């Protein structure tokens, strides 16, 4: 369980998250959606403890961060470090040793090559593999499907469903609605740092329609495409 | 090219200002400190020539970073990049060369000039498809990445030890050991991204001890060939060899603690000056280690949980 109560986050006078109240239960997958700048990544960073905030975040496993696998939108990789060494770094950080990394290479990554030479999608797959091997209880995937090929997207969807089956808590942000509707039990919509609504799986279609109407409006007509 | 140097000057000034010191005052103080420390060094130790050479080499190797070189080539092209790099290395080396010439260390001065030009013109890149094997892959990342970036310095240092043994120059042997320590210190020069600290399920204390233990083990591996060589061929000087080895390790511990004492920022100028001063007065390390340790624990509490 993770519970967020009255979370606020400000940068100077600019409030970027306003009174966020959310609860996440074991064995569920949650989607966090919103436009660019809505506060999704900041919310994730607050949950991880990478950002300071006011309000409370409580979890059944403490400290939360030690049981949390975090996939950043744009993961950073050291130069001159191979894929295998990157995985080892992240596993060592959680005292997970003796992991047979080659056997767990489900995305068939060239693990003996420097990770900094990987393509965007390969880098994301490497980061996902590493946090899965950390054996976490909670997962935050910030834009996991971005830049990843279709085959790997299919694998990733199956991984998320498997994590749900294993009673983990998974939070995902994505700009591709279909990836969320395939995996999530509940979606929370953020707009300008505020929690607008929470929608159960049965109402995902309505949410998509609503978001489409709000986002597109008459903006395409304004272009007067010819 | 003029704009590039003006921009570098502005960036340097900004960095100095961030530490709360007036840039003009910092330049004057820096020059005075450099001259005083050099004079003190030549008065106190016979290794002064080598220390000056080593200090300058470590600065030059920082300027020769591959990413920097790539940026300069992409922005200015090959020829202009060479000019910029020679000028940069020249500006950094001149004070050191002047000191060496003043002290009649002509050979070291000439060597420094040659290396400055060599570092400016050639980049020591490895083929991207080739992964350089290292003995450090079990516990990434500092030694793993650092070794691969500076791999060419290690055979050089071991070769110097060989010469030191062959020609019976003990000082040169000590210098080669210091070259390794200097290189290891550069592995900890820059703070890593917050994620790579945050990801550890350790307390700040355990995190630091883990870093120090890894650094001690891996530094010992790198220094071992020189240490053994000097102990075998200069058995009468074993106490000096071991003393330098111990002081070198203390410096490695200090730089780790100094790095995290400023985290997530880079080390500030006063901290850097304290560290530089302790090169000339190593007993200061015994005060600095607990000081930096306390500060590091405080800084790391922002990212690491303090409960076991």
Describe this structure in words.
The complex is a heterodimer of chains A (226) and B (308). Chain A is of the alpha/beta class. Chain A has a domain of 151 residues: P-loop containing nucleotide triphosphate hydrolases (Rossmann fold, 3-Layer(aba) Sandwich), CATH 3.40.50.300. In chain A, the strands form 2 sheets. A 6-stranded mixed beta sheet of chain A has the order 5-6-7-3-8-9, sandwiched between helices. In chain A, strand 6, helix 4 and strand 7 form a beta-alpha-beta unit. Chain B is mainly alpha-helical and 308 residues long. Chain B folds into 2 domains: 125 residues, no CATH class; 177 residues, no CATH class. The longest helix of chain B has 37 residues. Chain B is globular, with a radius of gyration of 20 Å. The termini of chain B are far apart. Chains A and B meet through helix 2 of A and helix 6 and helix 9 of B.
Give the quaternary arrangement of the chains.
heterodimer
Which regions of chain A have little confidence, pLDDT < 50, spanning 5+ residues? none
Class of secondary structure makeup of chain A: alpha/beta
The separation of the N and C termini of chain B measures 54 Å
Distance between the termini of chain A: 52 Å
Taking pLDDT < 50 over at least 5 consecutive residues as the criterion, the unreliable ranges of chain B are: none
What is the gyration radius of chain B calculated from CA atoms? 20 Å
Residue-averaged pLDDT of chain B = 90
CATH architecture verdict of the domain at 2-74 and 137-214 in chain A: 3-Layer(aba) Sandwich
Largest interface: A-B, 29 and 28 residues
Could you say which overall geometry of chain A the principal axes of the C-alpha atoms support? Answer: globular
User: How many independent structural domains of chain B?
Assistant: 2
| CATH fold topology of the domain at 2-74 and 137-214 in chain A | Rossmann fold
């Amino acid at each position: 369980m993770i519970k967020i109560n009255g979370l606020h986050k400000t940068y100077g006078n600019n409030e970027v998250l306003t009174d966020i109240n959310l609860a996440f239960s074991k064995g569920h997958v949650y989607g966090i959606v919103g436009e660019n700048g809505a506060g999704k990544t900041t919310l994730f960073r607050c949950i991880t403890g990478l950002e300071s905030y006011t309000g409370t975040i409580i979890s059944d496993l403490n400290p939360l961060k030690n049981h949390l696998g975090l996939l950043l939108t744009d993961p950073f990789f050291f130069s001159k470090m191979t894929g295998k060494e990157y995985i080892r770094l992240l596993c060592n950080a959680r005292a997970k040793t003796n992991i047979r990394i080659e056997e767990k290479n489900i995305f068939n990554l060239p693990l003996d090559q420097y990770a900094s030479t990987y393509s965007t999608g390969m880098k994301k797959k490497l980061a996902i593999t590493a946090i899965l091997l950390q054996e976490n209880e909670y997962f935050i995937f910030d834009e996991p499907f971005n830049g990843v090929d279709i085959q790997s997207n299919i694998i990733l969807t199956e991984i998320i469903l498997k994590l749900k089956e294993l009673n983990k808590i998974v939070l995902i942000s994505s700009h591709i609605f279909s990836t969320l509707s395939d995996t999530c039990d509940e979606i929370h919509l953020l707009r300008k740092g505020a929690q607008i609504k929470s929608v159960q799986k049965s109402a995902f279609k309505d949410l998509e329609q609503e978001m489409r109407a709000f986002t597109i409006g008459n903006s395409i007509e304004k272009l007067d495409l010819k | 090219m003029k704009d590039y140097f003006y921009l570098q000057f502005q960036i340097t000034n900004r960095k100095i200002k961030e530490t709360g010191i007036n840039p003009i005052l910092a330049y004057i103080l820096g020059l005075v400190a450099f001259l005083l420390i050099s004079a003190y060094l030549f008065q106190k130790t016979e290794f002064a020539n080598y220390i000056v050479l080593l200090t300058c080499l470590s600065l030059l190797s920082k300027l020769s970073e591959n990413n920097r070189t790539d940026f300069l080539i992409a922005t200015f092209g090959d020829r202009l990049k060479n000019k910029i790099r020679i000028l940069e290395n020249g500006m950094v080396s001149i004070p050191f060369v002047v000191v060496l010439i003043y002290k009649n260390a002509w050979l070291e001065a000439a060597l420094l000039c040659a290396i400055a030009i060599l570092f400016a013109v050639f980049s020591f890149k490895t083929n991207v498809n080739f992964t350089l094997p290292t003995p450090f892959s079990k516990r990434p990342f500092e030694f793993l990445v650092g070794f691969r970036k500076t791999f060419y310095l290690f055979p050089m240092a071991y070769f110097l030890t060989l010469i030191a043994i062959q020609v019976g120059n003990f000082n040169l042997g000590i210098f080669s050991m210091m070259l390794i320590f200097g290189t290891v210190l550069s592995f900890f020069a820059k703070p890593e991204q917050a994620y790579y600290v945050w990801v550890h399920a350790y307390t700040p204390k355990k995190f630091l001890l883990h870093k120090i233990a890894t650094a001690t083990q891996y530094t010992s591996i790198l220094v071992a060939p020189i240490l053994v060589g000097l102990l075998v061929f200069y058995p009468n000087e074993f106490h000096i060899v071991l003393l330098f080895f111990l002081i070198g390790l203390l410096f490695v511990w200090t730089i780790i603690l100094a790095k995290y004492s400023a985290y997530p920022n880079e080390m500030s100028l006063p901290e850097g000056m304290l560290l530089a001063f302790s090169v000339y007065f190593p007993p200061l390390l015994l005060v600095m280690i607990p000081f930096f340790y306390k500060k590091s624990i405080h800084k790391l509490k922002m990212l690491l949980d303090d409960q076991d």
